[in-house]
What does this fold into?
Amino acid sequence: DEPNLDSFLAVETLYAGFAWGQRASLNHHMGVPNLDVMMVHPAGRGGLVALVRDNDRVSLTLGAQEGAGIQKVQVCTLSGQLVREIDFVSSILGSSAKIFGVGWVGDDCLVLASSSGLVHAHHLAHSSHTVLSLGEGCEREGLAEMRTSPDGIFFRTAADRFGAMLVDGRLGCTEAGRVNTRFQGPVTLNLQTKTTPTTFKTPNSRKSTGSVHCFEVVPPAEGSGAFELIVAMDTDLVRMDRRGRLRPLASGGPYLRVCPSPDAQFVAALAATSDCLTVVDMSGVIKARVDLRPHNLSALDIRCLAWCGSEAVVACFEGHGEMLVACVNSRGTEEEGVAHVTWADIGIVHAMSSEIDGVCVLGQNRVQLCRIVPDMVRRALGPGSTSPGALLHDARNLVGQDDVRAANELLNILEGDKIQEATTDCLGAAGWCIMQPGFQESLLRAGIYGNAFGSGRQRRETGPAEPRDAISDLARSMRILNALLQPEVGMPLTLLQYRAVGLRAIVDRLCSWGHFLLALRISESMEHKNEHNAHRLAERVLLAWAKRKISSAALSTD
It folds into this structure.
């Protein structure tokens, strides 16, 4: 289908009409998975999704007897395929343990925390698990909140003490390209400021009577080794570093939810009493503020808060099938503190995952990707566009139909010396259209067509419009993305996410998920890329396959 470019936000359905955990029979009511009684935690960047049975929700929905069942954890792909199933009670956390928090550290380390301060780190790649303690203080005071990031585990105790359990060797990666998830001992962060407690009711019917209402981890800079927390304290929003030092960001709370942007430049916060969604930068300057009351919404009805790239904040509310989108960056208005607000019809949302170029939305039986439409895509594919990119795209399609009008279209571009701009727009739009293989092919052909004319015309002045190797790499990357998007694989990635994750990590994911043949074919197709050490990827895939076969044979009764 042709992408919808009528608004600045494009909503695309990645998968629909499936059932989560398709090979599992647990966490189902009347044969249908019910996400209303689960905790849903996506890893992000096309990774896995953890579905955890919430016995409290089951008791409220289906009765106390049903809520007394065993807590199970299902790990699925975004297309609903079951990858792993974990029996939490049978783990070494003890039969009385209850899952309190869930998170991901890296691509394949699932963290399950109990309220007593014990953490179960399950390494999916090699089917092992480790039990960790968040410290004597957390075990004594109880765990109030837990968050995870690639740097490790961050937590808050019931006495408002903060702590972190960092990943050992975070600045370096293992040979397999995954984060080395050997955790260091917990570090206590002393909160130096005392504030007056504020009590308000949250959507999950719990009450916060302490000075700290919630916190989130700022996405770490690559290789920095440092971390910061965004903490909602009483009526203030503050930044907290690893030494416990506080820097104010905003007042006007108490704040019910906070969410840092993926580029760590902005923070979105939802005020509980004023029903306002506020966006500030890291220096405390208000970039946007949206009053929810004119939209007949209350902050207490919030279900999910996330970022769509770093340009817009998206919020979903209980009982609403639409998502509020507040654009706060380049697409905002000229007036300071005013955001462009629109709505997107996406159905009932159970979880969202902020991505570097969009937001992944998980529903009962479908997964959607929402992205801000870039200018180059509007120019090349926008309705009625007469930009050089659109003219080049039309010209190449006419050439394929042996239509003489193609010469006129191309002549108009060449006369305006816009062939390089047109080529760049077509190739950029081809990399953006992950759900439209037809558009990918036609835009790639248009880019190659324009590059052939542009390189000969501009070689003496500015060089080729686009290096041939760059176009070849783009085409090869798009073939890989199309293979990963297939439902039997279930790893949807955009071109930006693919480059951020890296080829090595993707191959390791495929091996962990059991897709050895696809991992081998991808490795062999990229053997010319010396910077990825792709010539060694195929050997590692075969080694991983051999280990899996040997371990499976050891468990066989034959």
User: Anything to note?
Assistant: The mean pLDDT is 78. The longest strand covers residues 9-16.
